[in-house]
Each structure stands twice: as C-alpha cells, then as structure tokens.
Amino acid sequence: xxxxxxxxxxxxxxxxxxxxxxxxxxxxxxxxxxxxxxxxxxxxxxxxxxxxxxxxxxxxxxxxxxxxxxxxxxxxxxxxxxxxxxxxxxxxxxxxxxxxxxxxxxxxxxxxxxxxxxxxxxxxxxxxxxxxxxxxxxxxxxxxxxxxxxxxxxxxxxxxxxxxxxxxxxxxxxxxxxxxxxxxxxxxxxxxxxxxxxxxxxxxxxxxxxxxxxxxxxxxxxxxxx
Length: 226
Ligand code: JBE
Description:
Blueprint: E1 2-7, H1 15-18, H2 24-29, E2 31-36, E3 49-50, E4 60-61, H3 63-73, E5 79-89, H4 92-99, E6 103-107, H5 117-123, E7 127-132, H6 142-153, H7 164-168, E8 186-187, E9 190-191, H8 201-219
Parallel strand pairs: 1-2, 1-6, 5-6, 5-7
Antiparallel strand pairs: 3-4, 8-9
Bound molecules: 3-nitropyridin-2-amine (JBE).
3-nitropyridin-2-amine (JBE) binds near residues 85, 137, 138 and 141.
C-alpha cells in the first residue's frame, strides 16, 4: 500500500518512524511519504490560508496549493481522505475498507478547514471521504491521520505479529473486548476470576462473552442497538 500525507507540519509525522514504520516488516508493506503543502505555493510568504467569504472568525485554506499538490499525487485508484469534525465517523469497518485499498492520500487541514471546492472538485473523479474521529474539535487533521493510519495499517496482513489478536479485540465482533488478566493471581487484594485459572475452555469462552456484553451495555449501549 502507498500512503501520501499532505500537511503544513511535516515534522508532525516524524513519530511514524518510531511507532508504526519502525519495523522492517512494516516498511516492506507500506510506503509512506509526507508532503509539505507550502511547497505548492508561489508567493514569497508561502501563504496557504485566507479570510472566509461571508465573514466569520478564523482562516480558510486556499484551494490552489491543494489543487497543485493533489493533482500531483492522486492516481486512478486513490482514495482521498480529509479529516474534519464535519465528516463521517471513523470506525473499524472503515479501517477494514481502507486496509484493502492500494493508495491512500490524506489532506490535513488546519485553521477552520479547507475551501469546500477542493473536496467538491476531487469528488468528480475520485472516492473522497471526509472523516471524523469523533464529536470534539482538534486543531487540525494531523492527529486524526495518525489514528486512522494506525487503525488501518495494523489490519494489513503481516503488519501485526499475531493475526488472532485482531479477531478477539474490541469492535471486531461489534462488542467491546472482555477484561484481561496476567500474573500475579492476587494483586492488592484483587483476585483473577476463578474461571480463568481452570482449563475449561468453553466456560472461559462463555465468561468472556458475558463480560463483553456487560461492558458494552454499560459503556456503549449504542453498539447493541443494531
Ligand atoms: O476528527 N477529525 O478528523 C478532526 C479534524 C479536524 C478537527 N477536528 C477533528 N475532530
């Protein structure tokens, strides 16, 4: 898979080298490139934003540098992702869809967002997803891209050590994950549940399912609605 990230803060993504892409296996499976939006500006101030038509607070990112940069990156099968609090909420399902893609291009907006015509323009030729991490406001798309990328890349076969750990975790079965324990058996007066100490695999499976259901009911009842 190929991943291109466009941002005005390229060093923000230095963290990828120590987190996601530090392992040799990872670099064979994905090719990530970071691009500075300001490289596509032509004025001496390298300006990427301007005041909003219609008035209001904040600045809006100008469409031209985005057009130049994205024209140079997008291929026929690319998916363009634009993090925005006004997008569709990111999910494990979307991560699975993205993990099956061959080329992801992320456009990180800052300030009050990117001129709306950029998304409108590329929707005419490409799959464009305005995507949100959730109902809160970040300063820009960079943090969202890191989260989306981590959730997506770990689903690529070979990227994560143990494929079974992918199946059992939260959200894969539409439920939150059951609680886990390791040694010691007793810690600060709290004991590991008895059922986990025996070798009754069916009883353990049943216990874990019940805990998953209980946790989901308490923390995320919305997940049980459909
Ligand atoms: O979640 N997001 O993708 C965002 C992007 C930019 C600003 N706020 C967000 N929540």
